[in-house]
From TrEMBL:
Belongs to the MIP/aquaporin (TC 1.A.8) family. It comes from Aptenodytes patagonicus (King penguin). It comes from the Eukaryota. Homotetramer; each monomer provides an independent glycerol/water pore. Could also exist in other oligomeric states. It is found in: Cell membrane. This is Aquaporin-3. It is a multi-pass membrane protein. PANTHER family: AQUAPORIN OR AQUAGLYCEROPORIN RELATED (PTHR43829), AQUAPORIN-10 (PTHR43829:SF13). Keywords: Cell membrane, Glycoprotein, Membrane, Repeat, Transmembrane, Transmembrane helix, Transport. The chain crosses the membrane at residues 20-39, 59-81, 102-122, 160-178.
Length: 242
């Protein structure tokens, strides 16, 4: 009885009643889960030189991570996970504009923290694979574990168009799935359908920029690599690319 009473008191003490705080914490946790799985799939592929994963398994990990993340926060924050989606909801007047910068900051923070967790998880593998040098290009680069980088042939304008089209397709697909006036996805299967949508986009539009589709997913980890030792090159368009 004593233990049960203590647990009840602890639950009452830790219970968060402020709705905005609850939503922010849910969004933070969901983005953390999303990026943790996504980047781990990439880290396993890169640091094993493709022997323990390839581009398809990395894409699959990222797609399935969407499903887990939506289940994590869908009932609290709506699991936006993506500033582009939050922005779209604001434009459609389904989300208040004053919440947008808050959600965006939380999403970027969640991605930043998650990148740190992946760095710790794969610390030995990253340093072993890179021969002790953290670089953004070359045969032993490891920056692409965390953020996406353009293909050598890609121009800035084509890269911009690539992301606009990919992100627009993602948002359009999600809105179509959630539209009750349309042939919507059966209730409870939305996370699975959205995971398949992301996987579909990744395997069809991933060659140019690796399909970030999410500003928080790219900027948060990219900022982490800047802080962690990869340097300012992570924010530059590498010479010879485009």
């Amino acid at each position: 009885m004593g233990t049960a009473s203590f647990l009840k008191r602890a639950q009452a003490l830790l219970r968060i009643r402020n709705q905005l705080v609850r939503e922010c914490l849910a969004e933070l946790l969901a983005v953390f889960v999303l990026i943790l799985i996504t980047l781990s799939g990439s880290a396993q592929m890169v640091t094993s030189s493709g022997t323990k994963g390839d581009i398809v398994t990395a894409y699959l990990a990222g797609a399935l991570a969407i499903m887990v993340a939506i289940h994590t926060a869908g009932g609290v924050s709506g699991a936006h996970l993506n500033p582009a989606f939050s922005f779209t909801m604001c434009l459609l007047e389904q989300f208040p504009w004053w919440k947008f910068p808050i959600f965006m900051a939380v999403q970027i923070l969640g991605a930043f923290i998650s990148a740190g967790a992946v760095y710790v998880l794969y610390y030995d593998a990253i340093w072993h694979y890179s021969n002790g040098t953290l670089t953004t290009s070359g045969p032993r680069e490891t920056a692409s574990i965390f953020a996406t980088y353009p293909a050598d042939y890609l121009s800035i304008s084509n890269g911009f168009l690539d992301q606009v089209i990919g992100t627009a397709l993602l948002i359009m697909g999600i809105l179509a799935m959630l539209d009750t006036r349309n042939k919507s996805v059966p209730k409870g299967l939305e996370p699975v359908a959205m995971a398949l949508l992301v996987f579909c986009i990744e395997i069809s539009m991933g060659s140019n920029c690796s399909c970030p589709l999410n500003p928080a997913r790219d900027f948060g980890p990219r900022l982490f690599t800047y802080v962690a030792g990869w340097g300012a090159e992570v924010f530059r368009w590498v010479e010879g690319r485009g």
